[in-house]
Amino acid sequence: MFIYIAGAGAMGCRFGYQLQKSGNEVILLDNWQAHIDAIKANGLHITGDEDLMYPMTIMHPTEATREADFIILFTKAMQLKAMLTDIKSIIGAKTKVLCLLNGLGHEDTIREFVPQENIMMGVTVWTAGLKNPGVVFLQGKGTINLQSFSSQGEAAVKDIVDTMNAAGLNVIYDNDVVPSIWRKACVNGTMNSTCALTDSKIGQFFGSEAAIRIVKTIIHEFVLVGTAEGVKLNEQEIVDYVMHTAEIAANHYPSMHQDLIQNHRLTEIDYINGAVARKGVRLGIATPYCQMITDLIHAKESILEIK
Ligand SMILES: NC(=O)C1=CN([C@@H]2O[C@H](COP(=O)(O)OP(=O)(O)OC[C@H]3O[C@@H](n4cnc5c(N)ncnc54)[C@H](OP(=O)(O)O)[C@@H]3O)[C@@H](O)[C@H]2O)C=CC1
Ligand SMILES: CC(C)(CO)C(=O)C(=O)O
Questions:
Q1: Membrane spanning segments where (predicted)?
Q2: Is any atom of ligand 1 closer than 6 Å to the C-beta of 193?
């Protein structure tokens, strides 16, 4: 299969590597010049569970000309629209497009560029990190839950699911993936901004009663808004899932801490707590914790003069 990975950061590199290794033709698309130069010069340096140099093709999104069979979107949320604009010409009538970004509402952006029957939305618990330009850190295993928006459902994307499973990506076809996307958003909505704001690892933040009150209130706001939108969410099940994830990831700084505090980069807050606050305004549901956390993150971005 001919595949583009649109957004070759940590996750894009992981998926690109696994898909090419299993026999597909893969092109990585990215705009980070130092990363492009490193991969062109030396290949992708895989570290973590393995340590090897792996040759991969990488180019700027606007340089891609051949229509794709399959595109996986792996930008940060705030880069998604610009990426789709840059790759318009390689999205053909039969090109399937999968979005595995964290956060809410990406399908609305994708619909502007891709016909409904070719869109797949999903969520993944695979992880990856970038150590340096061209150097990715891959450890452990994961799974993907995805759903096709085609009226044919699973049948429309059988070849894609088979290709991803042959690459060891562990895809589960989910007939109702939206609650899983919201559940992951609750994980990010309770850990990412809070740890960035308190400069803490997940286990440190989750270590006080005050923090658990904040976590439960944020989840409550997500559930009120999601339920009003018709998403089937079980609040207690989500609280249990978030607590369990916090235990497993106790020793990690969430990606928003890495973006904002460690690397002084913009965050995905507007697509996590910010998305819930905006939906709340539209639905007439108060979401004061999500709104305040979004404002505090933007205030910190401004203090650090991040643009
Ligand atoms: N990392 C993880 O473990 C997981 C991430 N996700 C989600 O997947 C999506 C992609 O995340 P992820 O792969 O981690 O994103 P990364 O931050 O690794 O990369 C995203 C983009 O950011 C730019 N970039 C990254 N680092 C630098 C740098 N140091 N200097 C300049 N530009 C840089 C590049 O874009 P550009 O071409 O514009 O420069 C790159 O394509 C997000 O929605 C994330 O929330 C989901 C599950 C797990
Ligand atoms: C580690 C975890 C689960 C924390 O929210 C995550 O998804 C992230 O860092 O973005």
A1: none
A2: no
What pLDDT was estimated at residue 79? 97
Q: DSSP letter at 237?
A: H
The model's pLDDT over 55-104, given as tens digits with 9 standing for 90+, comes to 999 999 999 999 999 999 999 999 999 999 999 999 999 999 999 999 99
Q: Is the dihedral of CA 256, 281, 114, 65 positive or negative?
A: negative
* Contact between 116 and 97 (Cβ < 8 Å): no
Whether 21 is catalytic is: no
pLDDT reported for residue 250? 96
To the nearest 10 degrees (0 to 180), the angle between helices 235-248 and 178-198 is 50
Look at residue 284 in the predicted model and tell me its pLDDT: 98
88 C-alpha vs ligand 2 centroid, how far in Å? 30
Domain ranges of the chain: 2-175, 178-304
Ligand 1 site-directed mutation target among 11, 101, 257, most atoms within 8 Å of CB: 11
pLDDT value for 136 = 98
Q: Is domain 2-175 given the CATH code 3.40.50.720 in the classification?
A: yes
Report the C-alpha gap between 183 and 188 in whole angstroms. 9
- The response to whether residue 188 sits with its C-beta less than 6 Å from ligand 2 reads yes
ipTM value, please give it: 0.96
Specify the CATH architecture of the domain 178-304.
Orthogonal Bundle (1.10)
Helix (H), strand (E) at residue 195 = helix 178-198
Residue numbers of the chain with a pLDDT score lower than 70: none
CB 249 near ligand 2, within 6 Å: yes
